Amino acid sequence: MDDGEKIDRRTFIEKAGFYSFWLTLAASVAGVVKFLMPDVFDEPSTSFRLGKPEEFTKDGGTRLEDKNLMIFKDPEGLYAISAICTHLGCIVGETPAGFACPCHGSRFDKQGIVAGGPAPRNLPWFKIYLSPEGYLMVDTAATVTIGEKFKI
Ligand code: FES
């Protein structure tokens, strides 16, 4: 024996239609809301602060390990060279002659120009500029011609 309430076919179809309508409507509204509020993935900034110009009084080099970047200062100005090998992306090390890649032996001179090995391109130089707040900035998304130094 069944104590549950029996529903007839007509009632079942009416209820199924009613719930299907509201379920479809809710899914449509959710789709519209998702469309209006897309997922946004913040990319890290390609520009970062080096410091105040007065911090760069001495000539020499500074290696920024976390940025894979080398900053140099000489009497002509400041410049930033990528430490990422243009062959397959290993990190180059400094040598007395310039830079050398430990992975496949590419060598670059002190300006980052390929001096040997499989590297197809020179190490890029990145743009250095002064922020409105007076800080020296590097933009790793903007390259400059090799030899173009920022006068400080
Ligand atoms: S990754 Fe530098 S030589 Fe291959």
Low-confidence stretches: none
Helix and strand pattern: HEEEEEEEEEE
Q: What percent of the residues sit in helical stretches (DSSP H or I)?
A: 10-25%
Radius of gyration: 30 Å
Overall strand count: 10
3D architecture notes:
Strands 1-10-9-4-3-2 form a 6-stranded antiparallel beta sheet, with no helix packed on it. The mean pLDDT is 92. 18% of the residues lie in helices and 32% in strands. By secondary structure, the protein is of the alpha+beta class. The protein starts with 8 loop residues before the first helix and ends in an 8-residue tail after the last strand. It has one helix at residues 9-36; strands at 47-51, 60-64, 69-74, 77-82, 93-95, 98-100, 107-109, 114-116, 125-130, 136-144. The longest helix has 28 residues, at 9-36. The chain is elongated. It binds FE2/S2 (inorganic) cluster. The site of FE2/S2 (inorganic) cluster has 13 residues, from loops.
Question: Summarize this, please?
Answer:
The chain is an alpha+beta fold. It is built from 1 helix and 10 strands, in the order H-E-E-E-E-E-E-E-E-E-E. A hairpin with a 6-residue loop joins strand 6 and strand 7.
What structural keywords apply?
152 residues; alpha+beta; 6-stranded antiparallel β-sheet; 4-stranded antiparallel β-sheet; 1 helix; binds FE2/S2 (inorganic) cluster
Helix-strand layout with pairing:
Blueprint lengths: L8 H28 L10 E5 L8 E5 L4 E6 L2 E6 L10 E3 L2 E3 L6 E3 L4 E3 L8 E6 L5 E9 L8
Antiparallel strand pairs: 1-10, 2-3, 3-4, 4-9, 5-6, 6-7, 7-8, 9-10
